[in-house]
Write a structure and sequence with these properties.
- This protein is mainly β.
- The protein has two domains: 60 residues, no CATH class; 79 residues, Immunoglobulins (Immunoglobulin-like).
- Helix content is 2%, strand content 42%.
- Strand 1 and strand 2 form a beta hairpin.
């Protein structure tokens, strides 16, 4: 499936692979997708969502607009608004008795920052004016920050790589 002149996606028996250089190099494209056979792919023309029809799992959707044309040394992806969830655990000791149905974990109760580095580097990441430990591996990096003590409001996330600086807004509700 072609998204742009540069970005290609292919479904395989173990998931999706993506190429951001017209097929010269391919990478596993997980984005929280399990290892399942993918039988059909579509990039929605208006929304920019990659829609995958999987065998036994139904439909899986992720937005690929931020991946279009990334040719810079680094890219900081847009960040979802963050609403802290409270009282996630069971009340009392119900969990100990085993009377709860099986569940799968939710997204982290934290701000999730995704960024791409063309080459390994030593980036610095600042969220709401606070320094946050950041990984500097070549390729996609993910930082999960619990945002303890951050009040509701709009903040700026700043990624510095060498002399370049990238920023995105994040809303804390």
């Amino acid at each position: 499936m072609e998204d742009t002149a540069e970005n290609l996606y292919v479904g395989t028996d173990v998931g999706i692979y993506a190429s951001f250089d017209r097929g010269a190099h391919w990478r596993e494209f997980r984005s929280n997708m399990p290892h399942v056979p993918v039988h059909d792919l579509l990039v929605h023309p208006r929304e920019g969502d990659l829609v995958a029809g999987t065998y036994g799992r139904g439909i899986w959707v992720t937005n690929v607009v931020p991946l279009r044309g990334y040719k810079e040394d680094a890219v900081l992806l847009p960040i979802r608004p963050f609403s802290r969830r409270v009282n996630e655990g069971a009340f009392g000791n119900f969990r100990l008795y085993g009377d709860r149905p099986l569940t799968t974990p939710n997204e982290p109760n934290a701000i999730v920052v995704m960024y791409y580095l063309k080459e390994a580097a030593q980036p610095t990441l600042t969220i709401a004016g606070r320094s946050v430990p950041a990984t500097g591996n070549a390729g996609w990096n993910r930082v999960v920050w619990p945002a303890q003590g951050v009040a509701a409001g709009s903040y700026t996330v700043v990624l510095k790589v060498g002399s370049s600086e990238y920023s995105q807004a994040v809303v804390v509700k």
